[in-house]
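FAQ: What does the model actually see?

It sees only this:
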Amino acid sequence: SFDLGYHLLVKAIQELRRKKSCLITVGIGGPSGSGKT
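And it is asked to produce this:
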């Protein structure tokens, strides 16, 4: 049961990191892109 919980935790962390990197990319690309045009 410990292995299962650890596996779920790792998956959750990976999902959060992926979503955060998406938000960071949009946050950096959005404002700067609209500012240049």
